[in-house]
């Protein structure tokens, strides 16, 4: 009787090693699909797959390893989408993913130094601004480990803190304002690069540029809740004159956020992905008898209202993006053909030329 000789294919890996290999393959595939070189927005299903991978791994080492194999320094679209994907991962990934990402901070700093040399108006400068946001977020969470990645610190209708010392409240408020500065700078820079005559959010190329808006809305909302609570706590413990600088920064942020929420809330693309909150008509005065200025869910478009607190001067590029919310999101997204000249009037290769051996040296750090 002839003996049976098993083939090599029957000896498949089993156990943790096989699971790890499959996870690495799935993560690499999801990240490659999300961070593609086409000027379109990142699909939500690819973002979800990458985020779910961090929960399966209980960390983000595989994510960063896969990302490090991509030619980000030479591909503006890929690098822009990678920044957005990292932001989503830091916010929604496994809690350990945020901690794992701290060791890659210097990589982001080096990338910022590279992309900040880009000319204004293109993706290069947008990438530099986004890198500042990611660095600011890592620094914020490094100093305040009690704050989760999604910035939701509310429990039982109260904001929870690691300490009740007024000095810690003072320092935390400064760090909240610093991160808010970076987010506002990013959204304003994005608006400044949009063409006022072609910047409808139904266009794929526009969606690529504004894809960070939903996560910026979420981040700013979380920071606003924390900052309002901190300001009331500080005003109940410190002299009013001591907090002049804090109030100045808060009111500046209030005006910027009110303008940003209004503009973003009238963009069909943003409204389809996130609930844009509505700020109160006037900022809180932080008097003991004053009610806190809480966020409210945004309702349907009601048209511009007369505000008692004047908004910053409106940029015509931002005004052109105010779309009626009657647009049916079931309609197909308008696909645009991009030729050698950029849709927004700048070259597709709008980043600085990589120095000799930069890319090879850079990714060796991984």
TrEMBL record:
Domain ENTH: 19-148
CC terms in the record's Gene Ontology section: clathrin-coated vesicle; cortical actin cytoskeleton
Gene Ontology annotations of biological process type: actin filament organization; clathrin coat assembly; endocytosis
Biased segments, Polar residues type: 1-12
GO molecular function, one term: clathrin adaptor activity
UniProt superkingdom: Eukaryota
Region (Disordered) location: 1-23
Protein name: Huntingtin-interacting protein 1-like
Organism annotation: Actinia tenebrosa (Australian red waratah sea anemone)
Lineage: Eukaryota, Metazoa, Cnidaria, Anthozoa, Hexacorallia
Name of the gene: LOC116305085
């Amino acid at each position: 009787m002839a003996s049976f000789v098993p083939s090599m294919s029957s000896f498949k890996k089993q156990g943790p090693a096989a699971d790890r290999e499959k996870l690495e393959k799935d993560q690499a595939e999801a990240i490659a699909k999300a961070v593609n070189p086409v000027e379109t927005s990142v699909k939500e299903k690819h973002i979800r797959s990458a985020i779910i991978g961090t929960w399966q791994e209980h960390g983000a080492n595989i994510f960063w390893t896969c990302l490090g194999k991509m030619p980000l320094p030479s591909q503006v679209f890929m690098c822009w989408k990678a920044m957005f994907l990292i932001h989503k991962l830091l916010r929604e990934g496994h809690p350990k993913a945020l901690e794992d990402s701290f060791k890659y901070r210097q990589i982001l700093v080096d990338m910022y130094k590279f992309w900040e040399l880009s000319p204004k108006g293109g993706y290069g400068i947008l990438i530099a601004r986004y890198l500042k946001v990611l660095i600011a977020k890592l620094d914020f969470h490094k100093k305040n480990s009690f704050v989760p990645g999604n910035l939701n610190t509310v429990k039982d209708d109260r904001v929870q803190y690691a300490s009740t010392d007024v000095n810690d409240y003072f320092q935390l408020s400064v760090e909240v304002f610093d991160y808010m500065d970076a987010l506002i700078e990013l959204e304003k820079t994005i608006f400044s690069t949009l063409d006022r005559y072609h910047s409808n959010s139904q266009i794929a190329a526009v969606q690529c540029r504004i894809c960070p808006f939903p996560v910026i809305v979420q981040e700013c909302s979380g920071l606003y809740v924390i900052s309002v609570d901190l300001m009331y706590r500080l005003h109940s413990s410190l002299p009013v004159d001591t907090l002049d600088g804090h109030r100045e920064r808060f009111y500046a942020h209030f005006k910027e956020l009110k303008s940003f929420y209004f503009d973003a809330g009238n963009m069909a693309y943003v409204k389809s992905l996130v609930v844009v909150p509505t700020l109160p008509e006037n900022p809180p005065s932080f008097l003991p008898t004053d009610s806190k200025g809480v966020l409210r869910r945004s309702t349907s478009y009601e048209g511009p209202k007369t505000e008692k607190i004047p908004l910053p001067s409106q940029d015509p590029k931002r005004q052109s993006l105010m779309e009626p919310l009657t647009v049916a999101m079931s309609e197909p997204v308008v696909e645009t053909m991009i030729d050698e000249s950029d849709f927004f009037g700048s070259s597709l290769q709008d980043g600085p030329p990589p120095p000799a051996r930069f890319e090879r040296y850079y990714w060796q750090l991984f």
